[in-house]
């Protein structure tokens, strides 16, 4: 990737700057220029929502970034390429979503645009989890551009055409990101790695780094599900419901993690991921009157579904469907996202919302999965183009292909300065 | 713990869902149903206090969780069981505190309930520190249920009956949690470990992980001490006083850490813990007019007391009182909590508050310690029941008893793929 | 440092308490005592700005602290001495800045004082990066006192006399801190280490710890640049511009990191640092009407400048100028700070601000660099005094000089309990 990666990155940034010059303005400009616009400014609510934006921001960069550092030799890429994808994605997401919603006007940057820009990157980061360790930075830049375009289209369809409820984006972000990623992973399947790869495992401290990601996602999920909710009752309920759904999910995730292991031990993969499924699954109906105990039921189910997915479905996907999902995003985002979509239909049926219908909710779920699969398949085919720097099977899950890696990986004998130097690894 | 742990966890979660179904409603429901209630909604202040709630949330899950990761082989349990305790505790705390304060009405969930729910888990997490490495997850689930019941009772007594001031909960959370934990640790004392355990030590990076916990606790402590303070002057003072108390505490903690070590070196145990004592000790009088320099004096004293506790008291407790306190919670929460209680009495005597009396403050301190000791002794006896999965002496401070642990703990020779494989540990 | 360090630390804390007793009061006191004061209280905005303060707080303690943990044996000092400096600095900064701005009145503590106190510590923490690993804790306490005095003087000059714009402090904090640190590092130059030091390198996990710092700095930088901005349009723009500047900066930093390495690989030093240059460089004109695409251009340039600095300038500084800059603060804060100062001049020239002039902006830039260099040279000479505990060349970049370090640094063979014990390092 000697020159391809830098030139593509620079080219994309120049493209973004040009697009911003053409289409983006301060929200406050609109008042100066177009006095007849009646839409009230959200400048007044900027500082009020800013803490929620920052919580979401932490989820995107620290949450997703560190959650993926569990692999023993792929921490630089996990946290580093996560940052790269998100930095590009938030610029492109501002444009892609803004164009669709601005009806030919310029895009006025307010706090909700920034939250939505962060949201649109989440979709790509979820898909990134499915192909983690098996793709190049160039491929990820391209996936970012394509996926966010599809995401913005589907999100427009769901919100503006179907007028479906999906305040925490169980369908439009989580299910979408997961099935998009699975489709890409299916196309990029590597038969040579069907028996696994020696680097595809964690070490003790990489699992602790991953817990940093888990906890920041877990703690700030109420902000994720409520950040763009209607102020007042709905936003209040989105926070409260998510808070309790996540708490309930932890209990069932721990219980079933122990239950499905022959010796009853807890598995870090489940703890790092399935504890978050409650946040995903309550997303669609987070702002509805599902009551705290209702959200706890949803969370409990999500924790169980997610653990079962990791334990039983993921191995099947690899062997039978030839889809290898590195981080198990299907179990954290796919299944719980679908659970959330279904919970939304049930909640609407039970009268927990007066703004949507069961049919529209079902259409939203179908559209999200369908668009994701189609978009993912197309993206996968494009990413297969030979000049995009995809690593060889042997080099998968290894930072040293794309990164300068410290001469010594951690504290082997040499670390003490007087140990056996024979383990010194020549710089790769 | 093949089936016991999962069944107990699932049972508790079902119990919580039933309790929530019976007793908990949205705050906004109260207006629809009971128009004659005059207590104003705090929906308006929800978003205003939400950032403070999130700060407390981070303290509970990242702060306490990572603070305890200092042990070299017990990081999964520290951060993982911390999450489990807190997730159960916040549900149970919502009920236990809510029932006492709702006077027969349904519990209306507002932002303060969520903050208080997080607070009630803090008590258990402090006690968890005293028995860290020596107990099973089942024991911790049971301790969570019992301790929060005692905590809620004492908190009601202190706040509603004595009407004492304890805005940052030096007495009701910190001293309570510490002495409760010490009482449990005393009952669970293991003579076989009186000479220590080879796993009861840190490694370099586990100490750095612990600093993540320290810093998030340190930074967000002003939010902890002010989150439920009366809006306006009192909340403002709670933030300002805590900010300066903590800063002063750092200086004395560093100074005395160096002073008590023969070669004048700093000790990570002190830096990780004693730097936080200023937040604990200023808690009771944080919202009083003690003036910034007054809070700095309190913080300075707390830093000194805490370092002395770690250096001189902890060894005595283990050898003489047969109480082994893994994290030294007595030095971080116990002594500084009592210091805070005493500072509150002095502050009230000096006229820094017009809502409490010296007698009531002293009663609150006595009640907190007394309830904690009694509750801790009872809990300890229950936890001694033989079928609760307590680890053997040999297996203490080791994640691998309850967790699937990566085949390789960190980067030993094998990590490079060409080292000496003889160190390969067979999966435990 | 057997007694020197503790006595100096205790003495400084007592000094601070006395100063606070004499000069500092609650903001709310002013109303009680001096009814004729017309300056409105900012108590009303306390909770509104408190989340931004907390973001800045996280940047100071976790951001700067962990960013410097990249060295393999210097993590305790990086995060620990960072905490010590900041805790002292925020107390002293409250006094030093307060005295200058209070015009003979008492200093009223409001939210802006707390933000400014944190800001003043940032300057020292930047300079700390230049001398990291080569100085003693005592030296850092002394540098904190001197540097903040110079900082407060320059900040007063820039803001009150020149009335220049520098809302995100590209000049007064970043350039100032960098050139101050370089001047100190120049005076403290160690010819014995001109060929480097075996400890001056990272290991795999220390680089991941550093990314915690990077990300929290990156995410919260919009708060840093807007925290003390004028409410309304200006604060809104400061947030939006910084958000997009940082995103653009990531793309160019990654591109040029790859471009300047012979094999096209990414370098963790660049990713940890140069991705932040966009936040530094947009600081001066963050609240001006530079438009989102303008801020993206500034961010893009900053990312490039910073990578070039690390790659080409830093080696030159060490060999030709005899200035060894451990963390490369010149590349992260110096060059981007100057870039920010120049961008401010251009922005004023283009009419993006109506409150400042090009001349005053240039004067502010010159004053910041000039004051920093003079202050740094004086400080360096003082720090050279022989009784301040400076480590020998051999002991540089090693925690064990000032810290009790765990018997085992990380997971060597012994970690498994059955490995080869010959690597056991006797406690230093």
From TrEMBL, chains A, B, C:
Keywords: Ammonia transport, Glycoprotein, Membrane, Transmembrane, Transmembrane helix, Transport
Pfam families documented for this protein: Ammonium_transp (PF00909)
Matches recorded under SUPFAM superfamilies: Ammonium transporter
GO CC terms, sorted: plasma membrane
UniProt GO molecular function: ammonium channel activity; ankyrin binding; carbon dioxide transmembrane transporter activity
Topology in membrane: Multi-pass membrane protein
Source domain of life: Eukaryota
Transport keyword on record: yes
InterPro entries found in the cross-reference section: Ammonium/urea_transptr, NH4_transpt_AmtB-like_dom, RhesusRHD
GO biological process: ammonium homeostasis
Subcellular localization(s) per the UniProt record: Membrane
Ammonium transporter AmtB-like domain: residues covered: 16-400
Protein's UniProt keywords contain Transport: yes
Catalyzed chemical reaction(s): NH4(+)(in) = NH4(+)(out); methylamine(out) = methylamine(in); CO2(out) = CO2(in)
Stretches that traverse the bilayer: 6-26, 47-68, 74-93, 138-157, 169-189, 209-228, 240-260, 293-313, 334-352, 358-383
Subunit structure as annotated in this protein's UniProt entry: Homodimer. Heterotrimer; a RHCE monomer interacts with a RHAG homodimer. Component of the ankyrin-1 complex in the erythrocyte, composed of ANK1, RHCE, RHAG, SLC4A1, EPB42, GYPA, GYPB and AQP1. Interacts with GYPB (via the N-terminal); this interaction bridges the (RHAG)2(RHCE) heterotrimer with the SLC4A1 Band 3 I dimer complexed with GYPA.
Family from the record: Belongs to the ammonium transporter (TC 2.A.49) family. Rh subfamily.
Protein name: Ammonium transporter Rh type A
Originating species: Callithrix jacchus (White-tufted-ear marmoset)
Lineage of the species this protein comes from: Eukaryota, Metazoa, Chordata, Craniata, Vertebrata
Gene this chain is encoded by: RHAG
């Amino acid at each position: 990737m000697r020159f391809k990666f830098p030139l593509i990155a620079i080219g994309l940034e120049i493209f973004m700057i040009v697009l911003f010059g053409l289409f983006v303005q301060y929200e406050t400009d609109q008042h100066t220029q177009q006095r007849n616009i009646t839409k009230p400014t959200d400048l007044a609510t900027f500082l009020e929502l800013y803490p929620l934006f920052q919580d979401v921001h932490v989820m995107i960069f620290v949450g997703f970034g560190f959650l993926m550092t569990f692999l023993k030799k792929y921490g630089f890429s996990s946290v580093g390429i996560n940052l790269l994808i998100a930095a590009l994605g938030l610029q492109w997401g501002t444009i892609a979503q803004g164009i669709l919603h601005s009806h030919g006007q310029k895009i006025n940057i307010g706090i909700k645009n920034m939250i939505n820009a962060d949201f649109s990157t989440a979709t790509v980061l979820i898909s990134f989890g499915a192909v983690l360790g098996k793709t190049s930075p160039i491929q990820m830049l391209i996936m970012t551009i394509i996926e966010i375009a599809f995401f913005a289209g589907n999100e427009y369809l769901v919100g503006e055409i179907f007028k479906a409820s999906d305040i925490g984006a169980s369908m439009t972000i989580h299910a979408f990101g997961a099935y998009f990623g699975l489709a890409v992973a299916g196309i990029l399947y590597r038969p040579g790695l069907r028996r696994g790869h020696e680097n595809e495992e964690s070490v003790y401290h990489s699992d602790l780094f991953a817990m940093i990601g888990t906890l920041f996602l877990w703690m700030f999920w109420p902000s994720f599900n409520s950040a763009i909710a209607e102020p007042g009752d709905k936003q209040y309920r989105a926070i409260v419901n998510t808070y309790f759904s996540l708490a309930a999910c932890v209990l069932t995730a721990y219980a079933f993690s122990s239950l499905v292991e022959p010796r009853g031990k807890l598995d870090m993969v489940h703890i790092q991921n399935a504890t978050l499924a409650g946040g995903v699954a309550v997303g669609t109906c987070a702002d509805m009157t599902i009551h705290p105990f209702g959200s706890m039921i949803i969370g409990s189910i999500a924790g169980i579904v997610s653990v079962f997915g990791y334990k039983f479905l993921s191995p099947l996907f690899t062997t039978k469907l030839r889809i290898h999902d590195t981080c198990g995003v299907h179990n954290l985002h796919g299944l719980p996202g679908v659970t959330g979509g279904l919970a939304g239909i049930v909640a609407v049926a039970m009268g927990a919302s007066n703004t949507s219908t069961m049919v529209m909710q079902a259409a939203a779920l179908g559209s999200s999965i369908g668009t994701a699969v189609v978009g993912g398949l197309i993206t996968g085919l494009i990413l297969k183009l030979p000049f995009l720097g995809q690593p060889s099977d042997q080099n998968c899950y290894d930072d040293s292909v794309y990164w300068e890696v410290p001469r010594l990986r951690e504290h082997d004998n040499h670390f003490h300065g007087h140990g056996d130097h024979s383990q010194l690894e020549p710089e790769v």
